[in-house]
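Residues determine shape. Next comes a sample protein:
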Amino acid sequence: MATKRSATSKLFWIIGILLLLTIVAATIASRSGVFGNRQSGLEVEVTEAGIRSITQIVTASGRVQPEVEVKISPDVSGEIVDLRVREGDVVERGELLVRIKQDDYLAQVEQSKAGVLQAKAAEAQRLADFLSAQLEHQRQQGLFDAGAISEADVQLAKTKYDVAVAAQNAAKYSVQSAEARLRETQDQLNKTTIYAPMTGTVSMLAVEAGERVVGTSQMQGTEMMRIALLDQMELEVDVNENDVINVAVGDSASIQIDAYPERVFLGEVTEIANSARVTGQGTQQQITNFPVKVRVVDTRKAESQRGVSTAEVAAPPTETPQLRPGMSGTVDVFTRTVEDVVAVPIQAVTVRDVARLERDSKDGAEEDGAVADSTNVSTGMGMPEEDLRKVVFIVEDDKAKLVEVETGIADDSHIQIVSGLSGGEQVVVGPYRVVSRTLQPDAAVRTKPMGAAIASSETPN
């Protein structure tokens, strides 16, 4: 019985020793990299801070419109009796467009002519009265000088003469007034015939023959049509108030029209509004934009513009597309270009509270050194304010190192580093959550090239 217990105890000892040896061997193998990952820490994507050229872009949307477009409205009211054009017709300057019914205006002209004749007849009568009063005054003055009549008779003749002079002047002014009225009615009659003010295309026709239109000389009447230069098109886009300060007249641009999704047009900024266009004023949805006009130009013109060359925008096909007013489009304005600067992907630049990092570092040093005294325990009093700064993380010796940077302009993918990096550093660019929140200075990291982590984590739908 004793021998049996001794054998069982010996077996347990052997199993325990073997288990202990297995654990020790596994630990040594794991640390030496025989199995498992050779590195520890956060897995991050890295890329090299390179030297490149960056063009700052301001993007905005708007609609196509002609650079020159004239609205045609009548100055007189009436029925359209003759409409000579259709929408899309090309017209020459001075070409007849519309005739408005003239009957009423012809009658007014005849009345005005009769009024002129009547005024002239009245003027002739007043002239005869004037001559008669003048002769009577002269005769009475002669008799008075000879002592044949009294002074009262002379004064009466003088008064009649003065009345005749005034009546003659009034008749003269009446003639001028009647003639002015005639010119006015004649002008209204002439305005019943409307001619093209410029050479162009009828881009919009809003009336038909037989319709009645309203026109006044003091304000705009019924809009009948528009004539535009359709070979000179532009886009009016709304640029946010934060971006408009970067846009200047003469900046080149890339234009994409929704109707031509596979084509890129070249553009040039020609006008920037001084006054903002505000929507939702006084609400939380208030938006302040500035209208900016961008001319659509051809490749030869675009090469002479400053900011970027045509190499930055794909050359358009030789066939000229037909842009129509009202088409939607998006404009990328190239506001500024810098050559051969240090640049990193935009997602590599993040923000950290430097004051908090310094506090955390100090607290960690005190805990590690076990020197914290009960009287020196932080109570939160006198803590420095938040100090947010732009930083990037670079990898050195498998550890993340925080580097404060100053940034410049940016394009769609990269941002200029003005100071902090010299180029060639391995910069952490992802994952986004790690860069923006998780990653801390001196943290152990495992690296892989930019895009590799994204590619390996994709799963088919």
